[in-house]
Amino acid sequence: MPAPPGTAPAMDADITLRVDGETRRLTVDTRTSLLDALRERLGNPSPKKGCDHGQCGACTILLDGQRALSCLALAVAYDGAEITTADGLARDGELHPVQRAFLERDAFQCGYCTPGQICSAVGVIDEFEKGWPSHVTEDLTGEPEITHDEVAERMSGNLCRCAAYVNITPAVQEAAGA
Question: Which of 123, 165, 166, 178 is 20 to 30 A from residue 157's alpha carbon, by CA?
Answer without folding.
Answer: 178
